[in-house]
Amino acid sequence: MVADVIVVIHLVIVVFIVGGVPVVYLGVALHWAWVRRRTWRVVHLGAILFVAAESLLGVACPLTVWEDALRGGHQRAGFIERWVHHVMFYQAPTWVFTTAYLAFAALVLVTWIAIPPIRHRSH
Questions:
Q1: Is 102 exposed, middle or buried (0-12, 13-18, 19+ CB in 10 A)?
Q2: What does the pLDDT read at residue 89?
Q3: pLDDT tens digits, 31-66
């Protein structure tokens, strides 16, 4: 059961990372001030940079390692690779996922420049 909770947490992180970019653009269009808050944007940028760095360094995601250990085994494929395979029945070499992570990190950086965050002012 703990392994299943880890999968859900992992999925929430993936949705946060992937969904964060369109939410920023949508939020700007709808005048949502919170999408420009520096803290939220730093956490979002840090999350994708962490994933991209792991992939570049060939390091397995700690959540994947923990889940595998709880399930009594170790799989070479990472969480995203397993998820993509499971949902889309698609396999690709690891370099494809590394390239995708790096491209998405670049998109987040471009978004940071195009829509710069602002410091939240306390009242």
A1: middle
A2: 42
A3: 999 999 999 999 999 999 999 999 999 998 898 888
SS3 60: coil
- What's this model's pTM, rounded to 2 decimal places? 0.77
Tokens encoding 113: 């420049």
SS3 26: helix
Burial of 24 (0-12, 13-18, 19+ CB in 10 A): buried
d(CA 105, CA 9): 21
DSSP state of 118: B
Of 73, 95, 97, which is closest to residue 84 (Cα–Cα)?
97
Enumerate residues 6+ apart whose C-beta is below 8 A from 19: none
Nearest to 54 by CA among 1, 102, 109, 118: 102
